[in-house]
Amino acid sequence: MTAPFPTHKQEAWRYADLDALKPVWEQFAEPVTLTVASGESLEKIWLSTSDDVQLRRVRLALGEGAKARIFALNIAPVYGRIELEVTLAEGADFALFGANVGTGVSTNEFVTTVKHVGPGARSRQTIRSVLGGKAVGSYLGKVEVARGAQQTDGEQSIKAMLLDRGATANCKPELEIYADDVKCAHGASVGELDAMQLFYAESRGMDPASARALLLEGFVMGLWDGASEPDTIADAARAALRRVVR
Amino acid sequence: MLDITNLHATVGGKPILNGLTLHVPAGEVHAIMGPNGAGKSTLAYVLAGRPGYEVTEGEVRFAPSPFVPSEFEGRVSTSLDTNEKGEALDLLALSPHERAAAGLFLGFQYPVEIPGISYLQFLRESLNSQRRARSEPELSGAEFIKLARSQAALLGMDAEMLKRPVNVGFSGGEKKRAEMVQLGIMNPRFAVLDETDSGLDIDALKAVGAGINRIMRAPDKGVLLITHYQRLLDYVEPDRVHVLAAGRIVRSGGPELARELEREGYAEAAA
User: How crowded is residue A157: how many other Cβ atoms within 10 Å of its Cβ?
Assistant: First the structure.
């Protein structure tokens, strides 16, 4: 039986493009489950296709001391959604590096729930959005720390750049903590390019438009630094940025 | 080569430079020394065109001969005789990237970090932008890497560092060395070096000093060396030393002035 179709009243679907989702809902209704056994590690690179609507709904379970790194590029032309529910057992290590790059009237979003169930686990979520036109880019992320998950180390770093007045960024990092010895950091910013970086690039000979394009590239490309084979996702991200930064 | 006349500048509405006049002829290295807050870095930023550093009075003429990029022809002054060919640019009318293309280089006191962009990409794009503006052929990837490697080696820097994001994770000394590698790659006509010696240990100081001499000591080039201390001047002998205080040059002399300042302090020497 297909899961019920979501509504905007549900927090996790608040910014979703439900009209675009409706015709294809059945094929995405059930999340995919990935399990990383104790001591094992997983690295995934998620690229976008050219489909108008693209969803990834993944449940990821990390066993004791397991590691997972996910690099995700979210650049659907109409609606892209990357939804992750991650469970971390003792000493597990999870990292998500994601980018929303959008233009036109597209909506791209990351929706995550990271559950620290066992003690001493670490999670890192780094999301960068570059949005032009009337595009929407969102991050809704909850970090839950269960009772007894002491020495949890969770971090969310969310930044967005808006290139046009009509573009929108939504950032909503959330923490729900039931243990007393934890470190959970989160930072969100929606801003302009760094004026000093721009001046540095221009002082070296780049005209303002080239300097801006280069810095936007850096803003996103830094995400892939830790990938074992970053070339494909880096090329795809660069191509997406070129469409947004003209 | 660089002629600054009665320069007044404000930052955030506050006057910092108050009628600064300074002439650096081609082939010379001039040192500017002065206490904290005298306006040394402001002068460097004004020359490079940093936004927010507003010139309220005065002018700066820059004569980067022998070449004058074709795109600047309209802005070349014909009425001044500031250099041998009469080709002096109104520097303050140019935007920062045009100043770079005209041959001006600013060595930053605090080099800026740019995550996600490798030094190689940053510098290749910079150099080729300059070359395009001067109607010179661009360097291919291979040509550029060769140039970058040789310049890094001359400064005693591991060329592998140039694959890393711009200045990210570099120590203070490594950043300054990297600025000098940039100087070598850009090979400018005129360099303004803002406290390039701060944060350097003795070995790095020697390497940087030798780099400045190698790259910039030429009859058609000039250097303005901004520093707090005498020590860099042991390696880069200045032709003239100027004392900057309260936004203007209060005293000028030969290299011996730097030693006098070191001995007696600014308050005494500037009095």
Answer: 16
DSSP H or E stretch at residue A129 = strand A122-131
Chain A: nearest CA to B81, how far in angstroms?
27
Q: What would the pLDDT profile of A156-181 be if each residue is shown by its tens digit? A: 999 999 988 999 999 999 999 999 99
CB B47, CB B60: distance < 8 Å:
yes
Q: What is the CA radius of gyration of chain A?
A: 18
Query: For every one of its 271 residues, what pLDDT tens digit does chain B have, with 9 covering 90 and above?
Result: 999 999 999 999 999 999 999 999 999 999 999 888 899 999 999 999 999 999 999 999 998 865 445 555 555 443 333 444 556 899 999 999 999 999 999 999 999 999 889 999 999 999 999 999 989 999 999 999 999 999 999 999 999 999 999 999 999 889 999 999 999 999 999 999 999 988 888 888 999 999 999 999 999 999 999 998 888 999 999 999 999 999 999 999 999 998 888 888 877 766 5
Q: Does A215 touch chain B (CB under 8 A)?
A: yes
* Pure H helices in B105-242: 119-133, 141-154, 172-186, 202-216
Q: Which tokens is B184 given?
A: 């070598």
Residue B219 to chain A, least CA–CA distance (Å): 23
**A202 interfacial to chain B (CB closer than 8 Å):** yes
Closest by CA to A171, choosing from A182, A161, A163, is A161
Closest approach of chain B CAs to the CA of A144, in angstroms?
30
Using an 8 Å CB-CB cutoff, list chain B residues near A221: 116-117
Cα–Cα distance, A75 to B237 (Å, whole number): 56
Q: Among B106, B123, B129, whose Cβ lies nearest the Cβ of A207?
A: B129
Q: Any chain A CB within 8 A of the CB of B12?
A: no
- Cβ separation of A207 and B165 shorter than 8 Å? no
DSSP state of A87: E
Per the CB < 8 Å rule, is A197 touching B97? no
Distance CA B16, CA A25 (A): 64
Residues of A in contact with B182 (CB under 8 A): 204
Question: Do the strands B104-107 and B190-194 form a parallel or antiparallel pair, or are they unpaired?
Answer: parallel
Strand partners, A86: A60, A114
pTM for the structure as a whole? 0.80
Q: What order do you get walking across the sheet with B53-62 strand by strand?
A: B14-24, B2-11, B53-62, B88-90, B76-77
